[in-house]
Write a structure and sequence with these properties.
Four Helix Bundle (Hemerythrin (Met), subunit A), alpha/beta, 5-stranded parallel beta sheet
Length: 471
RNA sequence: GGUGCCGUACCCAAGCGGUAAGGGACAGGUCUGCAAAACCUCUAUGCAUCGGUUCGAUUCCGAUCGGCACCUCCA
């Protein structure tokens, strides 16, 4: 079954055809590790993970590369802002290297908790400065650069196709450009490849280069590292939608100017997660991380389920109500799966009905990653009375290859419930059990009310009375 | 100013030319001493408004109204 993907370059859904029949080469823009990732950032990694899993499910091998930006991109407007890593280091009193290491670990903790498959290659910008320098030299040789004010710039006028991805109108840009503080630029859209002249003095991270001691520009690392690990022409490059007009536009310019040919075939971009006030941001507003969610009693899979419920190219509005909905639905789903696991082993092969649900699932997800529709197929499968538990389980596992909710490693819901160790509550439960045995239901109900007031819920199940803390 | 997106039931959210997926919530039911949980059933003659194209439009085109994002480190 063919996979169709929306390519930002053509602004249309295209049938995916890899360069090589076997291995799909995919590069994803990774985190800048100067702070925790917020759940909006994490949405994009889930989208990329679904993309990767879909390719794997379709039978491709995938080489997935992701960068870790541990050279601070700058904070301010234009090329003269303060280095983010520097700022973070200064504020916390740690070295920039410590900061980078700390947040890289924190990032992967969240990444793993969300069941994202690790990239095959994770590459740090600071390990590849030599590759960046080599690429800049190549551009220099091709006449695409100029030095001004101590910095090396990329001249977009040497690359006629500049701005195609973002559909920028260059004439428009030139006349309507904002006030540009950098007088060194020949064209306001030119960008820095190598800095030796920082407005903010000595940086902690500096390297020697043919142009003097300094540090790389913001975009060059992705070009240098992706080409190093995936070659000069590869299949997929993805990231957040905000990367289109500047970051990816500049990456394309410098990469294709260097090689003289097409760099990437498919450009995929994930939409933003919004909150009440608009987009989530590290620099303003509420800073929601995965650990904030888990501290409020949500499972990382609640968040993944929530994200899977919206299409990756649509803005999705975060709310606590939406998280509650996701938690309930995911809980119901896990209960069904757990019940199936308790009663049957997954079937070796699928019958017609189960196969039909799987085919429908594949069709929907292969069509530009329509996970909301895929989830509907999963529910349809689970509610289909004509299918045996063993087949349901096998089919659900198949779907989970893409959904990544972790059905195979899941245990029953009881295990997730917090264990009550309050002696007073436990004593009350014991008294209630006695009261029930004596058919004194008035007392039993009274005790239930009392426990309720204490924040506990009592459930009588076939296996006995259970007590749990209310959320 | 430029680029792009959205407005579908109480809420979230698919569908994008052939007569409205799914989840949550609500309600009813089965079960239960009662509850809870679970399971079953039900919930839009309708897809912002007004025109147009079409045998047929939620889906295409135009206008209007109302939201939003990106263009600045940002997923």
């Amino acid at each position: 079954m063919p996979i169709s993907l929306y390519n930002t370059m053509s602004r249309s859904v295209e049938q995916f055809k890899p360069i090589s029949d076997e291995t799909v080469k995919m590069y994803c823009c990774g985190p800048t590790v100067y702070n925790y990732a917020h759940i909006g950032n994490l949405r994009t990694y889930i989208f990329e993970d679904v993309l990767k899993r879909t390719l794997l499910h379709a039978g491709y091998k995938v080489t997935h590369v992701m960068n870790i930006t541990d050279v601070g991109h700058l904070t301010g407007d234009g090329d003269d802002g303060e280095d983010k890593m520097e700022k973070s280091a200064r504020e916390s009193g740690k070295s920039v290297w410590d900061i980078a290491r700390f947040y890289t670990e924190a990032f992967f903790k969240d990444f793993d908790a969300l069941h994202n498959l690790r990239p095959d290659i994770t590459c740090k910008a600071t390990d590849h400065v030599a590759d960046m320098i080599a690429l800049i030299q190549r551009l220099e040789k091709g006449g695409h650069t100029y030095v001004a004010g101590g910095n090396v710039y990329f001249s977009i006028d040497t690359f006629p196709d500049y701005g195609r991805l973002a559909r920028l109108d260059l004439n428009e840009l030139r006349s309507g450009a904002r006030i540009d503080v950098d007088d060194n630029k020949r064209n306001p859209k030119d960008f820095v490849l190598w800095f030796t002249n920082s407005k903010f003095g000595e940086q902690a991270m500096m390297w020697d280069s043919p142009w003097g001691r300094g540090y790389p520009g913001w975009h060059i690392e992705c070009s240098a590292m992706s080409m190093k690990y995936l070659g000069e022409h590869f299949d997929i490059h993805c990231g957040g939608i905000d990367a289109i007009p500047i970051h990816h536009t500049n990456e394309i310019a410098q990469s294709e100017a260097a090689t003289g040919h097409t760099w990437v075939n498919y450009w995929l971009h994930g939409e933003f997660l919004l909150n009440d006030t608009g987009k989530m941001s590290k620099s303003s507003g509420e800073f929601l991380t995965l650990s904030v969610l888990t501290s409020k009693g949500y499972d990382p899979m609640d968040y993944r389920f929530f994200i899977l419920g919206g299409h990756y190219r649509s803005q999705l509005k975060f709310s606590w109500q939406a998280m509650d909905t996701a938690r309930t639905a995911r809980g119901n789903l896990f209960d069904r799966i757990a019940a199936l696991k308790a009663g049957a082993a997954p079937a070796k092969s699928l019958g017609e009905a189960a196969s039909r649900w799987c085919a429908s699932f594949d069709e929907h997800v292969f069509n530009d990653l329509n996970t909301p529709r895929g989830l509907a197929d999963l529910w349809g499968l689970l509610k289909d009375d004509t299918i045996s538990p063993a087949e349901k389980l096998a089919a659900a596992y198949r779907m989970d290859t893409i959904l990544g909710l972790g059905f195979e490693s899941l245990s029953a819901r009881q295990a997730e419930e917090s264990i009550v160790d309050d002696p007073e509550a436990l004593a009350l439960v014991a008294r209630r059990v006695e009261a029930k045995k004596a058919r004194d239901y008035a007392l039993a109900d009274e005790i239930r009310d009392k426990l309720d007031a204490m924040g506990y819920a009592v459930k009588d199940t076939p296996d006995g009375t259970r007590l749990m803390k209310k959320m």
